[in-house]
């Protein structure tokens, strides 16, 4: 299923739109208001409220303020978070970037556009090096091994998208990335020994950047909080109410957009981080793996 879903009532569903709509619906339910009352506050039809709550349309700031007033949501921080989320969603709907040149991305386009807009990403990876940290040779070997494409040109174009994404790690607004990576991902011989050695050396270089935090979950940890599967938490502001979760599922793009889901996965991430090696120890383990015969 495409992450951008067209509705029967018109409009296109987006991750951030659904996140905003879900927050507004939660406030409406909490205030005991009906959609008809919300529509009256907006001088609109109930259909418009449906579209807003399902993330099918961009939402104007005056509409958000009017709904918050109706629902008694007078916390300035909450209102500002909703306004910021709406602004980001409107910008994402209008955005045209380098990703438009790569149809190979398919359903991943929305992930890439949100990654471009995010301020921080927390990612937990069990089997592979995080995409933002992959070398071209590692990314190439990974996709050859996955068997998703047989055409070398298609593979090269996909590898190029992976490397272009990494531009967010530098520049005027570098993305803050906190990654938890299983020791198994560091030892899996993707592309062979030489490719993996270069990949691990690249990780050591990346960890010198102030916006990157890498911790390893060693085999010695035993059972840990991240064993259920890989995921990433994207943040668009400091508030947890702005977080969305992406599950790493090969067959599709899965988003968890509710505040409850975001809070749950942040707790899993934080617990796994406490089980992982500290950054200095993680770097030492990576060096030892590099030096192994």
Can you walk me through this structure?
- This protein starts with 14 loop residues before the first helix and ends with a helix.
- The chain has about 290 residues and is of the alpha/beta class.
- The N terminus is likely disordered.
- Helix 7 crosses helix 8.
- A hairpin with an 8-residue loop joins strand 4 and strand 5.
- The chain folds into 2 domains: about 80 residues, lambda repressor-like DNA-binding domains (434 Repressor (Amino-terminal Domain), Orthogonal Bundle); about 190 residues, Endonuclease, Chain A.
- About 50% of the residues lie in helices and about 10% in strands.
- The chain has a 6-stranded mixed sheet, sandwiched between helices.
Tag the structure with descriptive keywords:
elongated, disordered N terminus, Endonuclease, Chain A, 49% helix, 2 domains, 6 strands, single chain, 293 residues, 434 Repressor (Amino-terminal Domain), alpha/beta, 6-stranded mixed sheet
């Amino acid at each position: 299923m495409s992450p951008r879903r067209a509705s029967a009532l018109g409009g296109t569903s987006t991750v951030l739109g659904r996140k905003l709509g879900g927050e507004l619906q939660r406030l409406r339910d909490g205030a005991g208001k009906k959609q008809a009352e919300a529509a009256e506050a907006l001088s609109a039809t109930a259909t418009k409220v449906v579209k807003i709550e399902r993330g099918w349309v961009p939402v104007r700031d005056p509409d958000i303020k009017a709904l918050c007033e109706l629902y008694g949501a007078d916390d300035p921080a909450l209102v500002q978070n909703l306004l910021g989320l709406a602004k980001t969603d409107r910008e994402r709907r209008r955005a045209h970037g380098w990703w438009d040149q790569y149809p190979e991305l398919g359903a991943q386009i929305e992930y890439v556009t949100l990654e471009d807009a995010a301020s921080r990403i927390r990612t937990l990876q069990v089997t592979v090096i995080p995409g933002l940290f992959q070398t071209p040779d590692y990314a190439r070997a990974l996709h050859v091994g996955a068997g998703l494409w047989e055409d070398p040109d298609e593979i090269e174009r996909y590898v190029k998208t992976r490397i272009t994404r990494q531009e967010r790690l530098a520049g005027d607004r570098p993305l803050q990335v906190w990654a938890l990576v299983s020791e198994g991902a560091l030892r899996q011989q993707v592309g062979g020994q030489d490719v993996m050695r270069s990949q691990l050396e690249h990780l050591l270089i990346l960890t010198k950047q102030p916006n990157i935090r890498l911790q390893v979950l060693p085999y010695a940890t035993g059972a840990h909080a991240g064993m259920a599967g890989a995921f990433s938490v994207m943040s668009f502001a400091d508030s947890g109410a702005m977080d969305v979760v992406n599950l790493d599922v090969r067959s599709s793009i899965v988003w968890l957009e509710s505040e409850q889901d975001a809070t749950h996965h942040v707790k899993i991430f934080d617990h796994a981080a406490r089980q992982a090696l500290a950054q200095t120890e993680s770097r030492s383990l990576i060096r030892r793996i590099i030096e192994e015969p």
